Amino acid sequence: MNLPESYIPILIQAGVAVAFVAVSLLGAHFLGPQQKKGNSVKNQSWECGIPVEGNARTPFSIKYFLTAVLFVLFDIEIVFFYPYAVNFREFGFEGFLAVLTFVAIFFVAFFYVWKRGALDWDK
User: What stretches pass through the bilayer (predicted)?
Assistant: First the structure.
């Protein structure tokens, strides 16, 4: 198999990454705390001294997850504004138009989410 020489560092890095994951997983398994089997008091759920109430596997409302995804989506928008805020003079008018386009796309997304009722908690 003839690989170009430029692929060798990539293969070395991929090998190191796979080896690191394997060593981390095996190390955690063998060096980590061992769980005792059984139904002892130590293995039961405990929260701040309050007795357990119900099952911990009850499903959350989809609105919780939708809010989290929307927060991440609109929070990432701020990350993309930072380079523009730092270099707005170098970008000139073309950069300003690009940022206006970016903001317009996010406003369309925001109004779509709003009209679909994702931000209404009373429903």
Answer: 6-32, 64-85, 91-114
The pair of three-digit structure tokens given for residue 88, joined into one six-digit string: 């707005």
CB 52 within 8 A of CB 45: yes
**C-alpha span between 8 and 14 (Å, rounded):** 10
- pTM of the prediction? 0.45
- Kindly indicate the confidence band of residue 76, based on its pLDDT and cuts at 50, 70 and 90: confident
CA angle centred on 80, ends 78 and 81, rounded to 5°: 65
- Read off φ and ψ for residue 50, nearest 5 degrees: -90, 135
Can you tell me whether residue 120 is helix, strand or coil?
A: coil
Separation CA 103–CA 117 (nearest Å): 21
Tokens of 94: 């073309």
Distance CA 20, CA 32 (A): 17
With a CB cutoff of 8 Å and minimum separation 6, the contacts of 45 are: 52, 56
